[in-house]
Amino acid sequence: MTVFAFDRDWTVDVNPHPRHEAVPLECVRYLAHETLHPVYAIGNQDLAEEAAIPGVADIVGQHEDDWEQWLGEKKSSGRYEKFPKRRERLSLIADLHPEAEDFIVIDDLDLSDVSSWEHYHAWEFVPAIKQGLIDPDLPWVEDMSADGGLPTKAGIMPGSPVNLVSFIDEYADAPGYELDYEDDGTEQSVLCRSISLDDKSSDDPTLRCTPIDPEAAEFDVEFENIELLSVVEPPPEAFISDVDSLAEKAAAFRRVSDVHPEAINISSVLGILDRADGPRSRDEDALKALQRVSAARPEDCTPAIPILRTLLTLDDPPGLADMLLTLARIGGTDAEAIAPLSDDIMPYLEAEAALVQTAAARCMAVIAEETPEDAVEAVSQWPPLLTARPMLNVGSKLSTAFPESHVSV
User: Fold this and answer.
1) Are residues 212 and 291 in the same domain?
2) Do strands 226-232 and 176-183 pair parallel, antiparallel, or not at all (unpaired)?
3) What per-residue confidence (pLDDT) applies to 202?
4) Are residues 382 and 249 in the same domain?
5) 137 in a domain, yes or no?
6) 20 has a pLDDT exceeding 60
7) Cα–Cα distance between 347 and 325 in angstroms, integer?
8) Where does 174-319 have alpha helices with state H?
9) Residue 374 and residue 342 in contact, taking contact as beta carbons nearer than 8 Å
10) What is the pLDDT of residues 245-271, one digit of tens each?
């Protein structure tokens, strides 16, 4: 059971906020009369009559011993001498429902400091209702879409910088964002792959936005101009469209792989890697994309083995850790496929970079576990391993085959 407490003005649509979405009165009535959730009016008491729900006098009336403390005598005008303050009203409601699982207050005033109560502004509560975050069985639950038509997991029309900071912190790892804002009187909407606040403690922070479009520059939006910020899952084409060069395409694949690894075409990534010309950064982006895809679809990455083998033999290979980690994941589903690369992988067990060393060890562990003869043959051809520092872990079968070496398990 959830207990609801509603303000009226700038909260319910009988007197909505001039710039923000309001809670429909019908929603308040439905919660009160069609569900088992208790609902109270804590602000303008007109709502008690409009929604036919208990108001402050009713709340205090259930605390008979404290009646005079909170209300005093009733005047000839019909009003009471005094009223409990907003936070006191919430405390009185909570005392009536010790068995409740949740307490939710919807008010344009920030009441997030009240113990045990979760505060929503109306413009936050309505999206939460529609997304089923309040009660998935309510009739208004729907598949939310941001203005751009993309499915969204959460959205906020920030009523204060504190709300915005909290929202960004909660969804810091979101795959993408859709920002609706005002720019010189014109409404704008843009897809972003990252957002951040320049000063979280400021009363008027600036939102720093990095668009998904690789051609678009970063830009800033002042807090007062933010209309709606939504968490979305951009489609792969949002990252890849309008890119021409292979370097841009590699960077786009890297960005897509972080959000939609299942959407990456392996052949397209290999087409970028299978070219001798081009900047090192291009190959590193492509290898990073391949590595992320291998985490989700290792069996699909087997065609990459010949190209990775060639790259491993270069004097200064790009993206070494990503290459070796990709091979380790492929080997996890098909060890025999990477076993022929044992001789090429073995030298990297002595690499200076810890990530490269660890990834190489993972490859050898997979090979040693499934095809020990390949690992043993590789070790026999690599004398430095026989005197290796006791930090290498390449599987129990290697340490058994070479007990005189200091290969740890």
Assistant:
1) no
2) antiparallel
3) 72
4) yes
5) no
6) yes
7) 15
8) 236-240, 246-259, 266-273, 280-296, 305-312
9) yes
10) 788 788 888 877 877 787 788 888 898
Domain boundary among 182, 216, 234: 234
Task: List the one residue out of 91, 39, 97, 45 whose CA is nearest residue 70.
Answer: 91
Range of the domain at 14: 2-130
Question: Which is nearest to 212 in space by CA: 237, 182, 180, 186?
Answer: 237
Which runs of consecutive H residues, i.e. helices, occur in 134-245?
161-170, 236-240
In a domain, 93, yes or no: yes
The residues near 136 (Cβ < 8 Å, ≥ 6 apart) are none
Residue 109 has what DSSP assignment? S
Question: Does 136 reside within a domain?
Answer: no
For residue 244, being part of any structural domain is answered with: yes
Alpha-carbon span 322 to 13, nearest angstrom: 54
Q: Are residues 201 and 335 in the same domain?
A: no
Question: What's the per-residue H, E or C state across 330-395?
Answer: HHHHCHHHHHHHHHHHHHHHHCCCHHHHHHHHHHHHHHHHHCHHHHHHHHHCCHHHHCCCCCCECC
Q: Which of 285, 207, 291 is nearest to 239 (CA)?
A: 285
For residues 122 and 9, membership in a common domain is answered with yes
| Angle at CA of residue 282, ends 339 and 192, nearest 5° | 115
